[in-house]
Amino acid sequence: MRILALIIGVAVIIAIATWLIGWPAVPVVALIAGIRARRYPAAPLLIGGAAMLGWTMLLVLAASRGPVLDLAQRLGGVLQLPWLAVVAVTLLFPALLGWSAARVARGFTGDGVVGPQPGSADAA
Fold first, then answer.
1. Which of 15, 18, 89, 98 counts the most CB atoms within 10 A of its CB?
2. DSSP secondary structure code for residue 117 in this structure
């Protein structure tokens, strides 16, 4: 239940922050969420998914107010890609931003340190 609350809460906060500030809000929110959710081993993956969910909500909201499909089709034509690929890349962007920022948060909390640990046989 707490994981579901984490996903929904981060998705809503990312959607609102993106609406107000823009895409740079995604890694900032994800970094904070990653620090707060450090006890969950899959936190970066969950936060990346939440970021994708947040932008999905924004895309659905935009589609209810305007011709998002037309835009995706025209942009796909310019890029010589199917419109579905344009939508997929649009949603993959926040997922990767969210995942990477939450992964960086592991370094701040000491949960994702790479290399020999102090006191181990490999430490010099």
1. 98
2. P
17-59 pLDDT, tens digit each: 999 999 999 999 999 999 999 888 899 999 999 999 999 999 9
> Could you tell me which of 45, 40, 38 has the C-alpha nearest to residue 108?
38
Tell me what pLDDT residue 119 has.
60
Residue with tokens 């994702």: 112
What pTM does this model have?
0.83
Angstrom distance (rounded) from CA 97 to CA 91: 10
Whether 102 contacts 44, CB under 8 Å: yes
Three-state SS at 49: helix
Helical ranges in 21-116 per DSSP H: 25-36, 43-65, 68-79, 83-109
Contact present, 103 and 112 (Cβ < 8 Å):
yes
